[in-house]
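Hi support team,

I've been running sequence recovery on a batch of backbones for a student project. Most finish fine, but this one hangs at about 90% for roughly twenty minutes before it completes. I'm not sure whether the input is malformed or the queue is just slow. I've pasted the structure tokens below so you can try to reproduce it. Let me know if you need the job ID as well.

Thanks,
M.K.
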């Protein structure tokens, strides 16, 4: 997919909204993932090597994927769930929102998109009376673990996922770092 330079270089704005993605967004969502994988490979980082298109479609259909829109441009996507027994096992008690697959539009990297996602998650968790925001990331990527720690997340340990069909393809047999942010009551 090719996007115009004008699209990729739009000026940042503090006005944004967060809403569910739709099937109409799929081509752009796939492009975001492909660009992220290209960036990871180019820089020899630990990260995605593939992504599960069927799982993305399922998330959209179940209104579990969101987009940050700024000036009519999708600048970031992310997914949520409210139970994650496959990864958090005995810690799963229905008391957390789980963030997954945060992918930033390459033209908007470095403009605090993750901060917007975490702020949204905090408000969502408070509305649902949840005590935690949790996420997982590659255990071998200490840079991203340290980045999330700057937002107040604690590294709760590492876990190697199963090969379960309930997980997206990119999460099969993956060693992940479990990160948790306890919310103030």
């Amino acid at each position: 997919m090719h996007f115009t330079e004008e699209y990729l270089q739009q000026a940042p704005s503090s006005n944004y909204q967060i809403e569910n993605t739709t099937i109409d967004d799929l081509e752009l969502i796939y492009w975001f993932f492909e660009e992220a994988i290209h960036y990871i490979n180019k820089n020899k980082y630990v990260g995605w090597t593939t992504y599960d298109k069927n799982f993305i479609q399922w998330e959209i259909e179940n209104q579990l994927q969101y987009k940050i829109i700024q000036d009519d441009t999708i600048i970031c996507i992310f997914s949520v769930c409210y139970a994650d027994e496959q990864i958090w096992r005995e810690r799963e008690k229905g008391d957390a929102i789980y963030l997954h697959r945060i992918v930033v539009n390459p033209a908007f990297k470095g403009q605090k998109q993750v901060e917007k996602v975490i702020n949204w998650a905090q408000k969502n968790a408070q509305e649902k009376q949840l005590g935690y925001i949790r996420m997982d990331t590659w255990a071998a990527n200490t840079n991203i673990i340290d980045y999330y720690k700057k937002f107040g997340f604690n590294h709760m340990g590492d876990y190697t996922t199963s090969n379960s069909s309930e997980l997206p393809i990119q999460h099969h047999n993956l060693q992940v770092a479990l990160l948790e942010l306890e919310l103030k009551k």
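--
Follow-up from support: It reproduced on our side and the slowdown came from queue contention, not your input. The chain has one domain: 17-182. No action needed from you.
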